[in-house]
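Standup notes, structure subgroup. Blocker cleared on the iron/sulfur cluster input:
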Amino acid sequence: MSLETRRGFLVASGKLLVGTVALASMGAHASDEHEHHEHEHEHGGSGDGLSIDATAKDICATCRFWGGIRKLSDDGGKVIAQSMGWCNNPDSPNHRKLTMADHQMKKADTWTKWAVL
Ligand code: SF4
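Run returned:
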């Protein structure tokens, strides 16, 4: 094989390899998308979480120390929260632990109202 022929062969096989890798990653991408849709389906797709009365006291979702994903509903009557969050209150027995949004605070005078409410 002359040097030129060998180079041509390497270039050709290199292109083939690139083409194969591109196809493989497209395949992987397609299955990711599929999983993503399945995931959305399982959870209803709307991102709705727990809905807790905004006036509720001694509940993590309405506590200023709660580090979970939450928002106030459009009418301001509810806190919509996504399952769990960390308690950031050093006075709480749950400090630095994960609690559910609807967790009931047992220790008196530890809960403080979330500033947004
Ligand atoms: S455990 Fe108590 S102090 Fe901690 S976030 Fe929940 S309500 Fe607030």
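Discussed briefly. The mean pLDDT is 78.
Next: hand off to the docking folks.
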